[in-house]
Write a structure and sequence with these properties.
The complex is a heterodimer of chains A (322) and B (295). With 322 residues, chain A is mainly α. Chain A contains 15 helices and two strands. Chain A has one domain: MetI-like (MetI-like fold), CATH 1.10.3720.10. Chain A has a two-stranded antiparallel ribbon with strand order 1-2. Chain B has two domains: 35 residues; 202 residues, MetI-like fold (Orthogonal Bundle), CATH 1.10.3720. Chain B has 14 helices and no strands. Classes of the chains: A mainly alpha (322), B mainly alpha (295).
Chain lengths: 322, 295
């Protein structure tokens, strides 16, 4: 729609007038357009940008709340600590492993469920509705439910089910793993996958339902097998939705704090960067180091954001052409 | 595409008719599979609600006693009848922080989205990306300056600090969402209104708001959910006076002993508003979560 593109440049279609007056009117009009935007813009700059400037400044300082007299600028010392201390390197690896595994697995399961839900069957609307429920449990509550209700070795749902099945087959000594201690990372990941699969499913299902029905019919008429239809028609169309799900998922999982805090309290090698920063700041009171860690996380996020913005901007551009 | 073209020639037309009975059987199996997976995902939620109505003794059996008698004991314990620590102040704080911040978000986001969609400013794309980029900055990195600032001006343990932070957390989402709803309004409508002499406010009130109200409702519900769920800021910036529901829940993290029914009751109560909001906004959930990119 070309009128939308034209309208983005105010004043282009105005009749010629004395140049100075016209320019003045145009400036005025441009400002009137900007007024509704300004409160939101100024609010965001003040509340989100100023703290980051402060973080950047503090990251170059020697500042531990437990040693109030010993404060000053130290240059890159905090950053050296960030990159050399093995505990911190561990939390970088933990963050990457957690984010990648949760996003990939929940995308794969979400895709399978979306494909199943895209078919007609009895009770489809019901199943689709209850599938969303995991995503609508408050994250701390979900993590608590997994820690106390599902993983608990003596009365949790997992071991309870194992006992039930063992008794069913006449067994007497069921295997009773100590889930969180045995597999701490998988315990955190599984709970997050449970919560995030519905999110992926919803995005991919929306993608499946926006497929061009004519193209699908053409594929059917042409005798394409289900696999061929998926490979050559559905998947290329879904790619954008998969990318979107992966990107939004990555951001939420990258910043995840609740599950690590609740399920393992950052122990057993599960401490990711948000949790580690929280600890450096809240338990060790090392403000300088916590800030340097924060800056590193921001830098990493911006690299990923760069990819994300490219995907999203292709969506915006398409909208203008449409 | 070559493979698809090749099979088109090779496959006789009668083939698809012959395959139909077999397909029906397969459809049934796939429907059944969808039911099994759906129920499997729902099982923890069902288990949580069921256990919340069990006695502590019945909740702690192995294997689980699904058929045990139902009781409100877990809820009574959670609401502090007997123990004395009531979750009500925390729940009220959560409601205040979520509802007021959502209202503030809408007040800021609707005019902003108007300036980005209906009568777009010149660099609307840059502005949109600025809003989005703030969402990509991890909140944990801003935590320390915010804490120091709050401590300095005496805003620690003050619910209004959380309200401001939740507003900034949700404003980008709301701007993107609202823009995606407002862009659907036919261009001729506001133009005709302004030719008829309607000012910006009249235009907003009489034309934009009625058309956009389903979108506004969906945006509000999503902002409410994110504020209600938030833990990190609330954990660090509040203490006893203005702690929120999720912070109250963290007191169950390290507890030991017979209290699973109480934990399940707590998790159910705290999740109830989100479940209600989420199911109400079900058809707009995707659009909101993808910031309006997926419709």
């Amino acid at each position: 729609m070309s009128s939308r593109v034209l309208a983005a440049r105010p004043g282009m279609s105005q009749a010629p007038a004395p140049r100075a007056a016209a320019a003045k009117r145009e400036r005025r009009a441009a400002w009137i357009r900007r007024v509704p935007l300004l409160p939101a813009l100024i609010f965001m700059i003040v509340v989100t940008q100023l703290p980051f400037v402060a973080t950047l400044v503090i990251s170059f300082m020697r500042w531990n709340a437990l040693e109030p007299g010993n404060t000053g600028f130290t240059g890159f010392t905090n950053y050296k600590t960030v990159f050399t201390e093995s505990a911190l390197r561990g939390s970088v690896i933990a963050t990457v492993v957690l984010t990648v595994s949760v996003v990939l697995v929940s995308l794969a399961i979400g895709l399978a469920i979306a494909l199943l839900l895209n078919r007609a069957f009895v009770g489809r609307a019901f199943i689709r509705t209850i599938m969303i429920a995991p995503f609508l449990i408050v994250p701390v509550a979900a993590a608590l439910l997994f820690k106390q209700g599902i993983y608990n070795p003596s009365y949790g749902l997992l071991n309870g089910t194992i006992t039930g099945i063992t008794h069913l087959f006449g067994g007497h000594s069921p295997v009773q793993p100590v889930w969180i201690q045995d597999q701490p990372k998988i315990a955190v990941e599984a709970a997050l996958i449970w919560q995030w699969t519905p999110f992926m499913m919803l995005i991919l299902l929306a993608g499946l339902q926006s497929r061009d029905s004519e193209v699908m019919e053409a594929a059917l008429v042409d005798g394409a097998s289900p696999w061929q239809t998926f490979r050559f028609v559905t998947f290329p169309h879904l790619r954008r939705y998969i990318e979107l799900g992966a990107l939004f998922g990555s951001f939420f999982i990258l910043q995840n704090f609740d599950f690590v805090f609740t399920i393992t309290s950052g122990g057993l090698g599960t401490a990711n960067l948000p949790y580690t920063i929280y600890q450096t700041f809240f338990s060790a009171h090392d403000y300088g180091l916590a800030s340097a860690q924060g800056v590193v996380v921001v830098a990493a996020s911006l690299i990923i954001a760069n990819f994300a913005l490219r995907v999203v901007s292709s969506l915006l551009r398409e909208e203008v052409i449409r | 595409m070559t493979a698809a073209t090749a099979t088109r020639v090779a496959r006789p037309a009668t083939r698809s008719r012959r395959r139909r009975p077999m397909r029906l059987g397969r459809n049934m199996w796939l429907g059944l599979l969808a039911w099994v997976i759906g129920l499997l995902f729902f099982a923890p939620v069902a288990y949580m609600v069921l256990t919340s109505f069990h006695s502590e003794a019945a909740a702690a059996t192995n294997p689980p006693s699904y058929g045990a008698g139902l009781t409100l004991q877990g809820y009574k314990e959670f609401f502090g009848i007997g123990t004395g620590t009531s979750p009500w102040p925390a729940l009220i704080n959560s409601a205040m922080a979520s509802i007021i911040s959502t209202a503030l978000v809408l007040c800021l986001a609707i005019p902003a989205a108007y300036a980005l969609a209906v009568k777009p400013v010149r660099k609307w794309r840059d502005v949109m990306f600025f809003f989005l980029s703030t969402k990509f900055l991890p909140p944990v990195a801003a935590l320390l300056p915010l804490y120091l600032f709050a401590k300095h001006v005496g805003l620690l343990d003050n619910i209004w600090l959380l309200i401001v932070l939740y507003t900034s957390m949700n404003l980008p989402i709301a701007v993107w969402m609202m823009r995606s709803f407002l862009i659907e309004i036919p261009r001729a409508l506001p133009e005709a209104a302004s030719i008829d002499g309607a000012g910006v406010l009249t235009l907003l009130r009489k034309i934009i708001l009625p058309i956009a109200s389903p979108g506004i409702a969906a945006t509000a519900l999503i902002c409410f959910i994110f504020s209600w769920n938030e833990l990190l800021f609330a954990l660090v910036l509040t203490a006893t006076v203005s702690q929120t529901g999720p912070v109250f829940l963290t007191s169950f993290v390290t507890s030991e002993g017979l209290f699973l029914a109480q934990v399940c009751a707590a998790a159910t109560v705290i999740s109830l508003p989100v479940l209600a909001a989420g199911f109400a906004a079900q058809d707009k959930l995707v659009q909101g979560l993808s910031l309006g990119a997926v419709k």
